[in-house]
Design brief:
Chain lengths: ~290, ~350
Amino acid sequence: MHALVQGVILGILTGGVYALMASGQTLIFGIMKVVNLAQGAMVIMAAYLAYGLFTRFGLDPFLAIPITTVIMFGLGVGVELLFLRPLRREDKSELSLLVTFAVALLIEGVLSVTWGTTYRSINASYANSSWTVGSYQITVVRFWAFVLSLVALGLLFWLLNRTRFGRAVRATVQNPESARLLGVEAQWVSALGFGLGAATAAAAGSVYGLLYPFYSGSHYDLISRLLSIVVLGGLGSVGGAVIAAVIVSTSSAIVAATISPAWSEMTFFVILILVLLIRPRGLFGSVNRGAI
Amino acid sequence: MSIPSVLRGGIFVAALVTLPLLGLQHWFLNLLVFVLIYATLSSSWNLVGGFAGYPSLGHAGFFGIGAYTLALIFRDHVLATGYEPFVLLPVVGLIGALIGWPIALIAMRTRADVFAIVTITFLFVVQTLAFNLHDLTGGSQGTALPIPPFNADHYEVPFYYVLVALLLFTMGLTFATMRSKVGLSLVSIRADEDKARGVGVRVIGVKVLAFSVSVGITAMVGAVWAYYESFIYPQFAVDPLITIAMVLMTFLGGRGTLWGPVLGAVILESGQQVLTYQLGAVQLYLIVYALIFLVIILLLPRGILPTIEDRLRLYRRRRRTDAAPDDWPGDLAAPSSEADTATLLGGGAT
């Protein structure tokens, strides 16, 4: 029982971080109908940036986030303008999968050339300290990671629901044609939306680097989890992604605590298969003709 | 079946069969083996990804399943002739296809993007299993296959001919598909699945069949590869890069064509071997590969063969117009219905 509760606590705290990564992914899909296979690579890249700033300038990974956010936002906008915009509309969804995979490989290649292929981890002074609440351990890093994810998600929701840009984004998600007719600059919404999705990877990257050791190939592992979460939550639904992230990471933490850590990864996939059997459009997904 | 296509096929087969007789060096035979591996893989991917338009990213999972199936069958075996694994290849293919059947039934409830996601997650499931099922796969320690007792002087040759047979089988299947109702059904699914179902195409049966056959062939290639390598590790047997290579080669050559995947494999795999050799560092090769990948998709989104064919058709039409302007009422842009059907079917025999 103790292990179970500890697992649930761990799962919820980790779920916040996954929620942040997955919200960027699902946002990009919602706006552009593009599955960004480079999202994992972008998170790892942000982790390396935070690592670089930490080792070279002693900058705390949490404080590095504003800097990495700007870099990742620029990268996202650049990828959209250079590689995704030129695609022809009729086979955009198929080709964009390949393009974003190529971007992931490109990022992986650049990271391996710059930092090598050995595992790195960000060893901040508080990396190993933890609090004891009752008889349960809560590591400081995980707690702050969770808080940070909540703040970042809050910002994202504010941006989407309370600003002009957010309204344009939501209009595009609902109906791109009508949005365009009503004067939304779809081209810019796409570019900025992709940048925004990449920017969520920046905050997630700092946190990921603090929590886990990583190397340039870590993104394969990450992207498969993110994709399961996003499909579970319903493609394009940010709220769905958050809830799905918490569900998935809690159940995988429970499996790790009660059965074996080696099998916890499988939980993601088992849940995904169950969802596809019962409700192929995910928990909060809408039915898109041609997608499901 | 026109004469040129028979001629083309005949020349191709003759060239494949005689190549190893020329006394080639080991490195070149090795290169040919890998070109054949990828040509067969891409051709098999083309059956489902090219014709039906279901972009599977999970084929590398079946490649790994084939590799481990052969390893399991021949665990603790000593080979007498070395040809036993080749004889059992159909069994491996059948197992791959049988595993693929329920996977396809589940995964093909979704389309396009979601299908790609589901299949890529399947790939990672297989990889996780390969790492975790120590008793079956040896985990990250890897597992050994029986050593083939072939003469070291022409070690590659048996593998070469088996792969030639597999490639010709796959291409024959593709050729038959393109000329049958199944092929037409697959293309109609790619064009518009809902309408296809509406006019009575048995969409589920056809696409699940295509998927099973495709992954069965992929599993057989995986088995040959494992036997060739003698020792396999999860990260190489179930490698996302294999999936990507299959997709990329098919896209480069031309989706839904007979020769496209083969052409793509010849160009990319020989290019890759040379690049890895020249650049040494694997990481640098990743960057170059990704850039080539991007350039191909942005410049030739339809692939080499369909692009060439379009150019040719346009050129011929222009010449005809120049020669006899009265036949054409000046409407150059209007595509003939004949040309449209050809495009849909991937341009006939190309």
